């Protein structure tokens, strides 16, 4: 279950339904193959918010898809979830902060209104929904192992302008917000008695500033098949493999 960080949009090959921009080589698919899952449902969908997992049929360009929770049944043994980024509009805001020159001011200061960081506030506001999601999964599949999979190290602290068109201030800010989101998801997992798998250590040095052959995340202008600021095939494979090793070792 999850959003585009799990679905790996534009990574070959495309899975059905095409409106979800989901790859047959996203991390859930890699994980399923690595652990030899007897059956497997990948219901990740790009653009998903928590309500699309729990209660809403998510609209896509090829038609609505059912709530992802519908795929969870009483005999489900493992559920992985990556969600939260779209709830707080982090990808949309980051994409709008592209800068062609450092003469333009960073966008991060504008995200603090009357002393309140709007993204931090959104994380606080949405945390209960993530807890409710975990509860809903546990209710449907009481015996399932549930793992919240976090978001990665997308950019190094000062960025790498001009190789990637992001102001150093914004690079530090947005990774800090990813870290904050991961920390809250880890708290939700601990509070609800499920697991949190942190992919940030795995992805250090493989951010958008890395050389093309070392990247797990593509930059604003991808050099490998992937959506901008999203995992490429190597990144999805690395996360799926590491998660399989973690699960196989007992966690």
Automatic annotation (TrEMBL):
Cysteines paired by S-S bonds: 20-45, 160-209
GO molecular function: triacylglycerol lipase activity
All residue ranges annotated as the SGNH hydrolase-type esterase domain in the record: 1-238
Keyword Disulfide bond attributed: yes
InterPro entries xref list: SEST-like, SGNH_hydro, SGNH_hydro_sf
Superkingdom, taxonomy of origin: Bacteria
Record keywords, A-Z: Disulfide bond, Hydrolase
Gene Ontology BP terms: triglyceride catabolic process
Pfam families: Lipase_GDSL_2 (PF13472)
Designated name of the protein: SGNH/GDSL hydrolase family protein
